[in-house]
């Protein structure tokens, strides 16, 4: 086992937790993703803590200190402590007795290595004390430095404990890249990927969107395309060649933009691709609405100034910038850089005409809608520049 000393800047709330457990004669360490984040100079968002004290004692000592504590998973050794609005999960050291996919029958232990052995990847199996002592039982720090995603112990056994770990593996490949793939971990993941059918759509959605947001998402998807396994990861309505994937660009930290790009370029002859994605991934209504917007430019042969001003007005600045990125993947836009510059340095447009303006022209009923459409088309064709009087003059001619 490797043990090294780190200089870490813990938040004061974390110091409070360690102090309370220490005064109760307990031992505790940070574990999992927050340790990994510290080692790659990323500020952790979540802090998971392991301890040798049982949940009942943890609850008692924090209640005695007037700190909020909630028994969110006592049967598995986990309680939630809340300090100054920050959530900390504290879990008793444990080992698996029997595994049932996502859930396991556990037994509490005092053995830190046994607890580390039940985790998914070596880079997530490290732990660190308040003094900055790093405990690394499975060479996770070396794998992390090499950006190698590697299961702890036997990859197949780790995967059989929870098949979602296959998608977590692919997601971490998206985060760290493919230069140092662990052959055994990759082969075990691909071999067992059909077992994702036993995983809920919601859990697949969560991991897939994280993958699509990652730096190396495109490279991972190219490999999955070559393996012909898109349908196992919620993308059964998407058919796209690795050659085409090589050509397109992905947007880091914007999974819906990347999903829209895949959907638009898919060769699957399915008019309801977006609806199928919503069902397969259990997308929220907001995500579904955005995906429909982002995929709405599919039939036109090219993107013109008219489209630029039309969609900028209709979608607003933020959504339009994302939409523009997607469209440029479908059909290269001649004025892409110019459009980007204009939007980044411009403001949203307000259409100057209202219904009452048309009533003054004796335009009423359904004719108002037709007139508004004609006026907007004219407005977009002229860079959203004509004012109210100019639009009224135009409508007097064409209506």
Structure overview:
This protein has 399 residues and is α+β, with helices and mostly antiparallel strands. It has helices at 12-23, 33-39, 55-64, 112-117, 140-145, 155-161, 164-176, 183-191, 201-212, 217-227, 242-247, 255-265, 273-281, 285-294, 305-315, 317-330, 336-344, 355-359, 366-381, 388-398; strands at 2-5, 28-31, 47-51, 68-73, 78-83, 86-92, 94-100, 103-108, 127-128, 133-136. The strands form two sheets. Strands 1-10-9-2-3-6-5-4 form an eight-stranded mixed beta sheet. A two-stranded antiparallel sheet has the order 7-8. Helix 7 (164-176) crosses helix 8 and helix 19 (366-381) crosses helix 20 (388-398). It is elongated, with a radius of gyration of 27 Å. The termini are far apart. The mean pLDDT is 92.
Strand composition percent: 5-15%
What is the helix fraction of residues, given as a range? 40-55%
Order of helices and strands: EHEHEHEEEEEHEEHHHHHHHHHHHHHHHH
Largest sheet, spatial ordering of strands: 1-10-9-2-3-6-5-4
What's the β-strand tally? 10
List low-confidence stretches.
none
Radius of gyration: 27 Å
User: What structural category do the secondary elements indicate?
Assistant: alpha+beta
Q: Number of helical runs?
A: 20
Q: How would you describe the shape?
A: elongated
Keywords for this entry:
alpha+beta; 8-stranded mixed beta sheet; two-stranded antiparallel sheet; 10 strands; elongated
